[in-house]
Amino acid sequence: MELLQKLTLYDLFGYTLPGVIALLLYNGDLSYLADNLTLGGLVLLIVLGYVVGVVFTELADCIVCLLNKVLGDNMINKYWENICKIYGISDAKINDALQKAKLIESPLNDSAGAMARRYTTFMYSEIQADSQYSRLHNYASAELLYKNMVVVSVLAMGIGVGQQNMTEIIIGAVSVVLFARRWIRFAERSRGYAICWFVQKYDR
User: Fold this and answer.
1) DSSP per position, the chain
2) What pLDDT was estimated at residue 31?
3) In the chain, domain spans
4) Of 16, 48, 94, 164, which sits most exposed with the smallest number of CB within 10 A?
5) Is the pTM of the predicted complex or chain greater than 0.85?
């Protein structure tokens, strides 16, 4: 039941909410929709919102992949090194945790950032399954929400351009910047805490 609740909140805020907002923006006539929305229509809106949210997530992930290719490995490695520096995670700590988790047999010569980048999926999966670190779900949900809201804001800005509405363009542009800042912040937190708690879990 606890897992179901987490998944429900995760889906609702991460996928469905941005998707519903995007559909409402695209519809345009909110007053008509509010006056004529039935229970069946509401269910359909939520389902379609979820689907649109999933599409937004895939689009955002494609954009991130493209940016990673443009920025190159130096910028990506710097990003991971910075996360390890912020959370005080050394290569020795990660090596020790990876060995205790039986993922590696002997210490690696890589930096903390390189190891964090390589094994982050395993670390996240290991921590996510532990109820002691349930806050990680909150950071991941927030990251997903703000990532999708960036796409929603771009859509809003595009609608403003199409309608030549300067107010909508400005609001959309400002929203892109603000939501992108939140996205980056929670991405750093979810990755940083996953690595930190992974190390903490095996630091016994």
Assistant:
1) -HHHHHHHHHHIIIIIHHHHHHHHHHH--HHHHHHH--HHHHHHHHHHHHHHHHHHHHHHHHHHHHHHHHHHHHHHHHHHHHHHHHTT--HHHHHHHHHHTTS-SS---S-HHHHHHHHHHHHHHHHHT-GGGTHHHHHHHHHHHHHHHHHHHHHHHHHHHHTT-HHHHHHHHHHHHHHHHHHHHHHHHHHHHHHHHHHHHT--
2) 59
3) 2-201
4) 164
5) no
